[in-house]
Structures are given as structure tokens and as C-alpha cells.
Amino acid sequence: MVAALERFDKIEVASAYQLVADAIEREIMSGRMRPGDSVGTEAALCAQFGVNRSTVREAIRVLEQSGLVRRGADRRLYASLPRYSGLSSRISRALILHEVTFRELWATARVLEIAAAEQAAENADAAIIALLEANQAQAEAAQDDPARLSHLDTEFHQLLAKATRNRVLELAREPAGLLFFPTTELIVRRVPEGAGRLVAAHRHLIDALKAGDAAQAALWMSRHIADWRKGFERAGRDLDEPVERVYARSVLRPPY
Amino acid sequence: MVAALERFDKIEVASAYQLVADAIEREIMSGRMRPGDSVGTEAALCAQFGVNRSTVREAIRVLEQSGLVRRGADRRLYASLPRYSGLSSRISRALILHEVTFRELWATARVLEIAAAEQAAENADAAIIALLEANQAQAEAAQDDPARLSHLDTEFHQLLAKATRNRVLELAREPAGLLFFPTTELIVRRVPEGAGRLVAAHRHLIDALKAGDAAQAALWMSRHIADWRKGFERAGRDLDEPVERVYARSVLRPPY
DNA sequence: ACATTGACTTTGTCGGACAAAGGGACAAGC
DNA sequence: GCTTGTCCCTTTGTCCGACAAAGTCAATGT
């Protein structure tokens, strides 16, 4: 039942709402429409494209979802820069559904976090270091609260990524981080010395950033990540387990 | 006109189409609905949720866009695993709009590609090496065709990432790769020895994979990426330029 | 000057409608 | 036996018109 010869390309007919979405997307990607610009009311778009409002609204859902368009507080439509967080959480969801293993997660987080530590040491400014210190102070006070500590750990690494001033790296590490660091809760719950080692590592990392010492930052991040792995295994878990759907919660509803 | 006291949380009213989308999303994320399962017709969903078809259709656009649901060849709705490629290209678009610089791109691609080379050396199997060899044969024959060579280079690195058998890494490197490697065209156009050095580096990488030599793979990848940077600068470009929108083409319409 | 009112606009949702495309069953033709 | 044409039914893509809720804005009254 297979086509005898694959001579022709699949002919693809684009539906109206797709065409509308594409048109607006091109307008934004080309720079003719800039983030913050008003896209116009639904009625106006209907008139311009000569389609029904239902069609326009479907196109808007597509654009809204890809982050190119946003509803303002006044409910009007504005062109917008896609937010990182939305993208990251969707990738994390995809990783869960693909049932990637903790080993894959760990190996990837390892290189990304070490790189982040190095680049952060080179580029961190006082403002971001202050935020890291604030995080650290809270973490030191929360060593007996696994859930809170885990949340602070996730935040610490996000701040560290921001300190790199490398938005590509910041975005690249986020999906893995979103799945990886929440497991900290499980580890500090099962491994007594886990919390102490965590805040100690964070301490050394902050100090390395302050000193602008990339090598030291990389070293302590390396230990920090190695600790995670040891803790994970001592908690009786297997690296080759797939990441559970349980983490979908923390991904679907980002921690406020 | 600020609220006197912030006693209450912002009450957020979710629109019907959002609720419908969320409900279906939860069904899929929880595993109750598995990829490939039919989601049902629009009419059926209307009946189940007790909303209008327009509302259901808007919800479907949202889910379709996030890749959780797909239209089959028969136009029916099926639950689906989000494809990597769709996600990657959207991130690349976001990076373009945020006007990230080539420096950020380079620094990130560097660590990700080196990690990919190492892990590929440890995990590559014969099948994927055969694909890399095929790519290499084409590249050697296309040294005078910058556009084609650039496309093959992008593909080479994608294959290398697949060889790692680490899907998290594979996905993490893709967005940067999608923007990074197309510049190869510009470089081999301006730098005479560029093409030769590129195929030579790929050759050494394949050999390292065959030998399972992670250190050697990392070394040659490191040189390969350093070459890119040298070529980029010799082509008269500045690393601190933002990535141009020009590349939107190659991102929006993935190379088939 | 400022709060209130009321008209106007825009969005979110609904109901119903129809053409086009695909699927399935069944008969006709080679 | 296999393909082809035909009819019917389902489903999707699109359109039209409608209305309540919420926001905007300008005129109003004090």
C-alpha cells in the first residue's frame, strides 16, 4: 500500500487561521512590528485579513502560545518578546513525556551548570551577587525544611545562570534545571548531611564569583553536582529511572 | 489608587478555552491519555465540557501549538509527544528576538558541542556512525558549495548529538546550533581554507567516535569550534553583534 | 478638582449554518 | 482479485450573528 514512487511532495494546504498567524508572525519576526506595539483589535484584524473573527481568534491562540503576542492588562493584543520561562517549562514537559532518565538529566546539567559557574565568575556584577547572598541566607535558615531548601536551590542556580549574562546559556540550562533540582528535596530528606553540603557548596560558589575565580567556581560546581549524584544513589534511587511525571507539578505550575 | 492593603491575592479568572486546554493537558501529562490515543472529535469534546465548539477549537489550537495534540492525516485529533524540532525552532526565534550576541551563542555552543562529542564517543553505535560517514562523504564532495556545506555541517552536529543517546543534551544544544552553524556558510565563503578545515575536523571527530576516544573527540571539537570563531572574525564580523533576523528563515522553515 | 454616571468598545462565549474533505460501504468494470 | 466510481455520513474549517461582562472614555454633577 506504499506509494510506488515518491515523485511528488506532499501537497500542503494551509488553513486560514494558520495563514493569519503566519502573517502576523512574519510581521513581528521581520521587525516591522516591535515588541510592545499594539496588534490591533480582533475586529480590525478581521477587516484586514477579510476573515471571520473565529478564524482570527484561533490565529491569536497560536501566536499567544508561542509568546509572540500577549494580552495586556487591558486585554488588548500587543506584540511581545517570548518569555524564557514559558519555553523552558514546555521543554521540561516534553522531556517528561519522552521519559528521559536521570542519567541524561545529570550528564547534561553537569556540563551546563559547570559552564554557568565559570561564566558567572567572569561576568557577575554586585547586584546579582547580592541576590545570591540573599538566597544563601534564606537557605542557611531553611536547612531543616527540605521543600523550601529545594526551591531555594533551584532559584540559586537560576540566579547563577543569570549572572553569566549569557542568555543562550541561561535558556539552555533551564529545562534540565527545572527537572533536576527539585529532586534535591528528596535527597536532603533521605541523606542527613545533604543540606549542609548543599549550603556549603553554594557558599564556596558565591565566594568564587566574588573573587572572579572561574576555576574555583567550576571546581565547586563540579563537587556540588557530584554530591547530587551521590545523594541520589544513597537515597536508593537508580540513575536510569525515567524522570517521573510527579515533577510535572513543579513544571506546570511554576513556583511562585 | 493603589489598593490600601494587599490582603487578597489577585483573583484570576481562567477563560473557558484555557480550562478546556488545561483539562486535556492534565489528562495527557498524567498518563491517563497516552500518545497516539484519540482525543475525540470536536463535537464530542463540546458535549463533555459543555462548551461551544469555538471554545473547544481555541483550546485545541493551544494544545496543538504545545505539541501535546496533533492532527493526524485523517484530520482527527490524537495525543502526541511534543517534537523536539518544533520546540527548538521556537527557542531559536526567541533568541533572535532577544537579540543575543554571537558571543553568547559561541560560548554556549562550545560547551554543549564539546560535551556532545565526549558523550558521543562513549555511546555512538554503528548505525549512527554510518550516518555520520554518509554526511562526511557528501561534505567532502561539497567543499565548493558553501550553502550545501553549511547545511551538512548543521546536520553533522545534529547527528553527533543523537549519537550521545542523551536526549536532554540533544535538545539543549539544538536551539543554539540552529542559529550557530548556519553562519558556517558565511565563513567558508570568506575564508579560503575554511571548508578544508571543517571537513578535516569532522573526519577526526568521526575517527574519535569509532575509537571511543572521548578525550580526542573533545579535543577536535574544541578545535572545530575555535576555528569557527577565528573564521568569523577573519570574515570581518564582530562577536558582539546580535544574531540577525536573517537567520529567522533557516529557523522558521527548517531545512528539509 | 474629583467622583459618578452612562455611552461606547472590545473581548469571551454561544448558537447555528454550510462547503469541503475524508472514510466506508457497495456496485461496476478490467 | 483488484481497481474504480459512487453514494452517504462524519468531521473539520469557516462564516454569520448575537449577547453579557468588563474595560475605556468623556460628559456630568457637585
Q: What is the CATH class designation of the largest domain in chain A?
A: Mainly Alpha
Q: What ranges of chain A have pLDDT less than 50 throughout 5 or more consecutive residues? A: 1-5
Question: How many structural domains does the protein architecture of chain A include?
Answer: 2
Helix content class of chain A: 55-70%
Overall, the morphology of chain A is elongated
CATH topology term of the largest domain in chain A: Four Helix Bundle (Hemerythrin (Met), subunit A)
In whole angstroms, the N-to-C terminal distance of chain A is 53 Å
The quaternary organization reads as homodimer
Using a beta-carbon cutoff below 8 angstroms, give the protein chain pair with the largest interface and the number of residues from each chain: A-B, 52 and 52 residues
Summarize the main sheet of chain A.
2 strands, antiparallel
Count all strands of chain A and give the number. 2
Report the C-alpha radius of gyration of chain A, rounded: 23 Å
Largest sheet, spatial ordering of strands of chain A: 1-2
H/E topology pattern of chain A? HHHEEHHHHHHHHH
* Integer average pLDDT of chain A: 89
In DSSP terms (H or I, runs of 4 or more residues), the helix count of chain A works out at 12
